[in-house]
Amino acid sequence: MFRTRLLVFLFIFSTFYCYAQDDNGVMSMDESRFPKKRQIIRIPGFDGYQTLKCDFHMHTIFSDGQVWPTIRVQEAWQEGLDVMAISDHIEYTPHSKDVVVDHNRAYEIGEDMAAENNIILIKGNEITRNTPPGHFNAIFIGDSKDYIADRDNAKDKQAVMKAADQEAFIFWNHPGWKVNSIDGSYEWIDLVDELLKEKVLGGIEVFNGFKFYKKALDWCVDNNLAVMGSTDMHNIVGYSYNFKEGAHRSMTLVFAKERTAQSVREALEEGRTVAWSTKYIAGKEEWVSKLFYASVEVSPVFHAKTRNEKTTNYYEIKNNSDLYFEMELKSGKGTRTVTLYPQSAQVISATEGQEKLTYEVVTAFVRSDKNLVVDIPLK
Amino acid sequence: MFRTRLLVFLFIFSTFYCYAQDDNGVMSMDESRFPKKRQIIRIPGFDGYQTLKCDFHMHTIFSDGQVWPTIRVQEAWQEGLDVMAISDHIEYTPHSKDVVVDHNRAYEIGEDMAAENNIILIKGNEITRNTPPGHFNAIFIGDSKDYIADRDNAKDKQAVMKAADQEAFIFWNHPGWKVNSIDGSYEWIDLVDELLKEKVLGGIEVFNGFKFYKKALDWCVDNNLAVMGSTDMHNIVGYSYNFKEGAHRSMTLVFAKERTAQSVREALEEGRTVAWSTKYIAGKEEWVSKLFYASVEVSPVFHAKTRNEKTTNYYEIKNNSDLYFEMELKSGKGTRTVTLYPQSAQVISATEGQEKLTYEVVTAFVRSDKNLVVDIPLK
Amino acid sequence: MFRTRLLVFLFIFSTFYCYAQDDNGVMSMDESRFPKKRQIIRIPGFDGYQTLKCDFHMHTIFSDGQVWPTIRVQEAWQEGLDVMAISDHIEYTPHSKDVVVDHNRAYEIGEDMAAENNIILIKGNEITRNTPPGHFNAIFIGDSKDYIADRDNAKDKQAVMKAADQEAFIFWNHPGWKVNSIDGSYEWIDLVDELLKEKVLGGIEVFNGFKFYKKALDWCVDNNLAVMGSTDMHNIVGYSYNFKEGAHRSMTLVFAKERTAQSVREALEEGRTVAWSTKYIAGKEEWVSKLFYASVEVSPVFHAKTRNEKTTNYYEIKNNSDLYFEMELKSGKGTRTVTLYPQSAQVISATEGQEKLTYEVVTAFVRSDKNLVVDIPLK
Amino acid sequence: MFRTRLLVFLFIFSTFYCYAQDDNGVMSMDESRFPKKRQIIRIPGFDGYQTLKCDFHMHTIFSDGQVWPTIRVQEAWQEGLDVMAISDHIEYTPHSKDVVVDHNRAYEIGEDMAAENNIILIKGNEITRNTPPGHFNAIFIGDSKDYIADRDNAKDKQAVMKAADQEAFIFWNHPGWKVNSIDGSYEWIDLVDELLKEKVLGGIEVFNGFKFYKKALDWCVDNNLAVMGSTDMHNIVGYSYNFKEGAHRSMTLVFAKERTAQSVREALEEGRTVAWSTKYIAGKEEWVSKLFYASVEVSPVFHAKTRNEKTTNYYEIKNNSDLYFEMELKSGKGTRTVTLYPQSAQVISATEGQEKLTYEVVTAFVRSDKNLVVDIPLK
C-alpha cells in the first residue's frame, strides 16, 4: 500500500505489555513474566546414539550452594538438560548451623519434581579433599551415609574408595584448581594414577564452568577416560550464563543408546562423551568428529560463476545444531573462514574441479594442541 | 570447588568486547558487529513437500520503498527466506525525480546477489489502482514494460488482465485497506469476482504486515485461493520486526515438491500455502492441520502418579518448529492450557485411561471464526 | 570508503566470544558470563525527596522460598534496589525437616552482604493467617521470637498486635488473594478495619507480583495508607521478570528525605509512596503527579510548519526515567497518542496558538477507575 | 502467599503477543513491531558545554550506499544522534545508471524529515581520491555543483581546495585504509601536511566503523586537530551494530555551547571532540578526562569493616553515562579492577587512611600508547 517516509513514526503502541482484567477488580499483568517453557537444545545423535545433555556437577544449600534442590531441577528443565546430578560436598557444609546435614536429602527433595518433568536425576556427591588431589565427583551412588569419610582422619584415597565400593562412577574435578605448585601449573598426580590403575577413575573435568583444563583433555584421550564438562554451579545458572546471548550452560554431551540412567552410565564408562562450554567442544577425535558431521550439512552446488575462464561454485553449508563451529581453510581453494553459528547457514564458494575443501575447526579440540580437521565435500 | 557467597561479585570483566591489533596501529573492534549469518527458520515439511518460507510483497526505491534492491535480498538471506519477490508499484513512483523509472530494474539489480546466496528471486510488480479494488500483486511476470497500463486511462480490469496475459500469478493485496465504505467494513467486490471467474485471481493476502484480514481467509477457503502472507515492506524489515523477540517477518509458507521457482508456482496455483504473522497462522484446514502435526511431537507416558486411587500420566509435548501454538483443552481430562513456544517443550498430564486429549489451537485459524482442533494421542 | 553491495557478507567473525590463555594450559572463557554489575534504575526525586526503590516482600528457604538469603541480596544489588526486606512466613515453614526454624536467621545471614553492597536491609516477617484476613507483612521488627503467635491458638488480631507492639510497620498483603467469597470478589473486612482504627495498619499491597488489586488502591487513597508494590518472590526474580525486555521487578517507590532506614520508615508512615509493576504505576494523585512531572521534560517548539495558513508546531517530549507512560489526548489539538518508553523521547506536534495539551496517562492510576491527567505546556 | 515448588510451572501464557480486533474483521497484531521511539544516549556535558552525539560520515544511494536519505535520518533519530551529515562520494556514483547524479539531493531529501524530528542535518560530501591520500569529508558545504572536481583531471589537492574555498570543514577519513605500502603500514603524507599548513585540514577519523587508527590519534593531538569517529555507513546501521547488546553506533562526541549547527562548527574548529566506538573512547587528554569525571560519581564511604586491626572502607562508584570504562588500579590499596558498564554501579573497597586510588582507564585513549589516568577520591 502507499506509505510515506514517515510510516515508521506511526508505531505508537507498546510492544511490551497488555493486560486482562477479571470482574473483581484484580488486573493481571503477566506479560513481562518469563514464559514457562523448556528450551530444546538441538544436537543430533548418530550411529544409533542419542545425544543427551548432562550436567553432573552442581551444589545446593546442603553444602555451599545457595539454592534449594528444586531450583536445580527447574533450571535443568528450562535450560534443556536431559540428565543432572546434584553433587554437594561431603566434607564441606558451611550452612550446617541452619541446615541439617544429610547428604541424601538434595536427591530426595529433587526426586519427584525431576520425575514429573522428565529429567533424569542421578544421585551424587563431591568428595572434597585438600589440593592435591582436590575434588572428585561420585555419581550413581547409594546411601551417602555409607561412605562419608571422617573428615579429619580419612586418607584421601580411602574417601574415594568408599564411594567406589558402592560402584559409583567417579571423575576428577577441575584438576587445575587451587594447585599448590609455585608456578600455578597442574600435573598428573600419584593418587589419580592409582585410581586409574585400579579402574576407579572414570573421567576428568575438562570444562568446569568457564575454565578449560587443556592438559586434562590429553589425559582423558591417552587413558580412555570420559571427557567431562560441568557448571559446578553454586549460585544461579541464569546469573552466570547469559542465555539472552544464545549461550547455554557448560555440560557433558553423552552419546547414549537410550534416554535412561543405565544408558548414561554405560556411555560414561565407555567414554562416549564430548564436553561443551561457551563456543568450544572438547573430546576424543572419534566423537568430536561424528558430532560435527551429524550437525553440519553441505548442499550440492547451487550456483556457478565464471570469470576470466575461471569458474567458482557456490554451496550452502548449514549448522543444524546449537553448537558453534569456527572453521579455517587448510587445503583447497575456497572460502577461507567460515563461522557456523547455532542453527544458521553460510554460503561458501570454491574453485571448480575440486572434490573437497579441508578445514580446521578451531573451536573443536581433540587434544590440548590439536583441533578437529574436517573435509567439506564439493558436489 | 569452594566458593563463597560473594563469588558472583568476582565477575569483573566485560562480556561484550575484546580486540585484536595488527602491527600497523590499526585496532579492529568487530565484537559489537552483527554476525554475518543466515538464520534457519525451522518448519518441517510433510507428505513429500518442503515448507518454503516466502515473501512475495515488498518495495524498493524503484517505487515508494526506501532501500536499494540488494538490501531486500540481504534481508531475505539473513532472515531465512527461501523465496522472495520485489513488487514495486507500477503506477506509483514518487522518487521518479531522482530514480529512472524502469520496473525491470529492481529484479535485474537483485538477481546476481540472490543467485549467489541461494535465494529464489521471482519477478513481480504491484498493480496499483484506487480503492476499490485497490492493489494486486503480479508475480512470475515477464517484461514489465509489456503490461504497464496507462495510469490515467486504463480500466482497472485491463491493468490486471495485461499481467494475466503474461501468465503472471495474481493475488489481491490487503483487501481491507483504505476501504471507502462509511463504516470501514470491506467486502467482496465485482471486479475481484470477475477475476475469480476468469481464473485470473490466484490468492488473497490474509496477513499484510501486522494486519489479519479475517474475511479474506473465508474467501480463500470458499474459492480455493492461495492464502497469502506478506510484509509489504517499504522501510527496513529489522526496524518493523523485533527479531530479538524471536519474531520473524510475516510470510507465506509454501508446500512445494522442490525448492524451485516452478514448484513454488505450482504450489501457489494449487493453494498449498499457510500464511504466518507474529504468532498466528491461517490457512485451509488441511494444510494448517498437516503443519501442526508435522511440527509437534508427543512422548509416550514418562511418569505416572497415583493419588487417592486416581492415576495421572505425564507426557512431554515438543514443538520442533519455529511456529507458536497456544492450545486450550476442548475434551478429555488433562492440562487445560498448553503454550508451545518455538523449539520448546511442555509437560502435560492426563488422567489415566484416556486415548487422547482434544485441544483447540487458538493461534491457528482455518476460518475467520474457526480455529484448528487437534487430537493429542496418549500412549 | 568504497564498499560493494556484498560488504555485509564479510562479517565472518564471532561477535560472542574470545578467550585468554595462561601459561598453565588453563583457558578462561569468561565471555558468556553475565557481567557483575548493579543496574541503575533511573527515577528522579522531587521536592527534596529521593526516590528509593524498595521491595519489602520476599521469601527464602527459611519459610517457603527456594533460595538462600544471600541470593535475595544479590538480586537486590543487581536489579537496582535501594531497600529490601525478607519477609518469611512466621506460621508456614514447609522446609522445617531440613532447615532449623529461626525467623531471625534470614536477616542475620543477609546482613553483612547487604552492608557491604550498600543495600538497606530491613528486618521483616509475614504474619500468615487463613483468608480472610490472610497475610500481613511486619517490617522494622525486633526479635522475631518475641511475637511468634502460637500457630494453633492465636487469634488473628493477636498475631498482628504482637508485631505492632514492637512498633513494626504493618501492611496487608494481596488483599484479593484466595478469597473465600463465592464470586471471587474481595472486600474490606472487619479485622482490617479494626487495625486501621487502632492505627496499626500502615499500608496495603496494590501490586503483588503481576497482580494489580485495584480496589486496594481506593482503600489506600481513602484512608491515607501507603500504596505498596512487592514481588512476593519465592523462586528466582530473574526467572519471573524478563529483564532482557527492559522490565524491572515490582516494587514500592518511596520518596524519602535521605537514603536511610529511618527516612524510609517516616515516608511509609506518611504514605509518600507509589507502587510500580510492569508498565503501570499506582498511588495517590499527589505523588503520581509529582513523579510524572519530575520524569518528563518538554522542549520549546523546535520546528514549525505552515500548510494552508495553518501552522503546526513541533516539540520534543523526553522521558528521563525508567518508568513507562502511555498518554491519550484529552483536550487540545495535537498528537493524539504518545508512548514514552523508558529513557526515550518522542516528537509531538500541536496546532499553533495553544498554551497546552491535556493528556490522560492510561498507565498511571490514581484510583481504581481514574488515571492521572497531565498538562503538557507548549512554549 | 503460599506457593508450591511447582509455581514456576504455572506460567502458561505467552509473554509475547496480544491482539486487538476492530468490528470489521481486521485484526491488528502490532505486538512484535519495534516501538517507534528515540533512544536517549546519556552522556553528560560539562563546563557549560552540551555533549552532542554526531555522525558526519554516511552514504546513500546517491553514491554507493544502499538506502534512501530518509532512512539515514530515521536511524539518527532512533539511535539518539543530535547531528548528522550525509557524505556521499563526489567521484564515485556506481548507481548512476538508475539514479540521477546530483550531490545536493541527499541533503534536500532529508532536510524536512530532519527538521521535523529535531535532528541537525549538516550538508556534506566525501571527496574521493586514490590512496594516498584517499578520502576527505567536506561538511558545512554550499552547493555541491560548485566544487565537483573533474574526476579524471583534477589534482587531489585541487579537489580538496575547491571545497575549502567554500569554507567547508574538512577531515581526513580512515587514514590507514587501502594503504599501498608493502607492509600495510600507513604514514603521514605530504598532501595532508600541506592541507594542515594551509589550515584546510580540521580533523582526522580515528574511529571509522569498527576500526581504530591509533596513529591518527597522535597526529590529532600533536597538531590540535579534531578527533573524529564515524560509521561510514553504506548498509543499514542496525545490521552492523548489535543494538540489542546495548551497543551504539560509532560517533563523534562534540562539546558545544548550544545545540545548533553553528556551535557544532565552532567546537570542531576548536577540536572540542572525543571519538567513541564500541567500548572505546579516544581524544585529547583534556576532553577525555573531563568526560570521565562528568560521567562518574563516587559515594562517600558507606561501610567499613575491620579485620585484624586493618580497616577496609567501601564506596559506591556510579557510571551515570552510556559510556563504558574499564579501570585498572595503578596506585593505592583497593579494588584492582573496576568495570563501569553503561548506567551501572560497582562497589569498590580501599584500605582506610588513603586520600585516593589512582586507576588507568584502559578503554580510554589519549594517545596511541597512552590511556587516561584518573584519581578516585576517597571520603
TrEMBL record, chains A, B, C, D:
One of its GO terms (molecular function) is 5'-3' DNA exonuclease activity. Pfam families: DUF5001. The keyword Signal applies. This is Histidinol-phosphatase. PANTHER family: EXONUCLEASE (PTHR42924), POLYMERASE_HISTIDINOL PHOSPHATASE N-TERMINAL DOMAIN-CONTAINING PROTEIN (PTHR42924:SF3). The keyword Disulfide bond does not apply. Coiled coil: none annotated. Residues 54-131 form the Polymerase/histidinol phosphatase N-terminal domain. Keywords: Signal. Residues 1-20 form the signal peptide.
